[in-house]
Give the backbone structure.
Amino acid sequence: MDGNADKAVFFSILRKNSYLYSKQHIMAKDLYHEAVKTALIKEGWLITHDPFYLADFAQSIDYEIDLGAEKLIVAERGFEKIAIEVKSFLRTSISHEFHSVFGQYLVYLEALKQLAPERVLILAMPDFAYERLQDYSFILDLLTRYEVKYLVFDSTQPNIVIWKK
């Protein structure tokens, strides 16, 4: 087999096994991460950690989940301290994607309460995902019931369009 055929087979297997490895997802994740960071700076936030590794603060706690693998943006403005988890919502099924994001949000929320209680966890999502979520009353009820703090950013330019603190 030539190199291109080998690559095609490799990426085909990756796509079947995990959406995380798709080139589109990786590019969009990087793009949105930087866009949210830029939008925060435009609104007067000082980025203090990028990324913020939770594992750095958990040396004496026995975690079974590798929280340090995920990136959080940490920012401060005046006395406010936040940690932002940027999600792209690129899966075809918005409800399936939300299940994953919501579970991760709850784990991060508990970890921050123990490790950095001065920080407020904010879920960042693109405007198109927020619009799609409006069709799912059950999901909207969960966001309200669990008091999920989130921001919605413009997916085409680095602006925050909604803050729910």
